Task: structure prediction
Amino acid sequence: ITKNVANPVISHDGSFAILRISGDDGNPDLYISRFENQQWTIPTPLQQNINTAKDEYYPEITKDNHLYYSSSGDVYEADYKESIWQNPRSVQELNTSFSESNIAISRSGNFLVFLSNRTGNYGSYDLYMSKKTDGKWGQAINLGPKINTNAMEYQPRFSLDDKYLYFTRSVFTEGKRQGKEYVMRVNLEKVLKELK
Result:
């Protein structure tokens, strides 16, 4: 059993999982565990071009095994070629001077939802969506007041059929987090219609 594990995501084919593990210094890095002989292997760190002196957390894997993750409040992407992740690059279409993290990508690969505290939020942190067109992510759009509230909405996840978006809502009272968390589900088609 490995301590300080969080944010696990499993590849689409179920052959490996990426997770965040914090070392004794409290610095979180990304690790990989493979499913072999009907069990998960002991997690090992991803290569050094991914894990740096900065924090790496909230990984996400596409159907082509491309890796998205957060580092110091920005979103990064690393292509997967010849069974290795290439040098990561900042996703400039999504990053701002504010914080962007909690990345979730639809199974189709066409939509990305993330968490941000950028200007114009309904609460402390809101969920935003971006659509990929011609290989590039479009302008991020706030998912609106029916999803985002004066609480905090985070940890988005798409259902396997891309019909629903799940997320967590943290309850706030007088600006203070109360330790109450609710898992929410919304119809993705309705969300997209309302954003048009």
